[in-house]
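Help! Submission page says 'invalid entity' but I think these are all valid:
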Amino acid sequence: MGEESIFSELFLERLNYCIYVILLLIGLWAMLAKKNLIKKLIGMSIFQTAIILFYVSIAVKQEATIPIYLPEHDPHGSHGQPSGDESGSQTAGHAHGPLALETEEIKGYANPLPHVLMLTAIVVGVATLGLALALTQRIFQGYGTIEEDELLQKLDRADQRASLSPTTQKKRKGNSRTKATPSVIAKKGGGAKTSLAKNKKTSKNQAKGSIAKSTTGKRQSKAKE
Amino acid sequence: MIGLEIFNTFILLLLVVAAVASLWVRDLLVSAVVFGVYSFLMCLLWAEMGAVDVAFTEATVGAGISTVVLVATIFHLRRKSND
Amino acid sequence: MKILSLIPIIAIGGLLLWAAQDFPKWGDVESPASKSPVSSHFIGKTGVDTEVPNMVTAVLADYRGFDTMFETVVVFIAGMAVLAILKGSTRGNSRRKDHEVEAEPDLIVTNTVRLIVPVIQIFAFYVLAHGHVSPGGGFQGGVLMGASFILIALSWDLEKAVSRFSIERCMIVAALGIVIYGGIGLLSMMLGGEFLDYAELERVLPVSREMARYHAMLGVEIGVGFTVTAIMFALYANLSSEGSLKQGL
């Protein structure tokens, strides 16, 4: 296959497939590389529409019409015109009534199956987008930022604050003191690994003992701070 | 038929431009609106490809609700994006 | 990070473009997707089986009824999850931003919306009910209906829209939609068929088996419309007010 033919194969006869790949990559790149959470979500939506574009593209048939019956195949006769003889169409319904289509006639309609699959996917897509946006709002309420790098920094700082002053932590938690202690220790274990060098000294001795403890649940109850 | 093909190509290229633009701009509100434009271009493309139901859904959901929901969220966040 | 993420993207893109050469040609009638017996059956037999001219609606609500039912459930669950996430939001709308000014709703906007909302709602009903013979159906009609409430919330304020359609009522309506959908399925099961086998409804409806499927599809679409209407409005109402349901944008 020569250079020319690949070009024509991809960009002239299969431009839709080509564009779907490009859009998919744009969405994927946004999800991976963009720091802003809203940008990530827009990238996710672009990714999703790229997949839908692919599905719709394979449903297309040359010279075919939309997947709604033409008047001659309409189960209820010519739609829109008043059908005078209701009884006549019942008995002699074979003329224009429900009749399975021939293979040649099937070729005249676009493939409805991908359309159906994608129709529900769009609506579910907006519902999940709303869910993701709600989570983003909560993150912003908790941390005051939706930039990924700032978010990680704040998480680290919160880890250090928790590891620095376990007593104040206990005081603030009040009645749930006994429950709070293991999670605070766990936080130290997780935070000390990636913490900045500034407060290393103070957190070191405390973190040493607790590193072996489980790090699960270290991210919970951060939003309270 | 050739007219349809030109239309198809034109919309496909605009789609890529809109997708890149919505990720390029640093103002999130602009980003959301450009994403609405992208959704509507997609809806036009699907209508041209014979998927009328999908196009209708995208016009109401993608260009309508999801833009509004994005704008509603961005209103409560910072408009500025760092990248 | 940006450079690093380009590596998998270029790899995936190369693979996909390479695979794209083997795809069937644009609009090929003989492509595997178009030649498959399932699609041919849907195109050829929809008219005979269900008498619905719009194949997409027939496949959506009848042949693939299970799929659509659980997609509706997914929409419902997503709406509930948004409520659950934003409900305990403490900050709410306590602080207003500087650039906001307390102003009365604009006279021109509110009067235009007053005129336009009934038209949108009638069009939503038309789209829902006429989905059998034209593009449309439960999802589109439901979204349009939800959009009309969002328009009220945008032009006045959220409280006015919520006073018309409270979130509790939203959730009841959304659940009712799924109950309608599942109820039609259960009814057809009780009448001797399988779940969502609408043809059995001919025993309670004075129509033929095909027309029973036609009418049951309308019922199912109404159920979908209920759920989607309520969830779309609940989504907007919660996201625009950070869960407090006051003032909104």
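Support: the input was valid. A stray whitespace character was the problem, and the output above is from the cleaned input. The mean pLDDT of chain C is 86.
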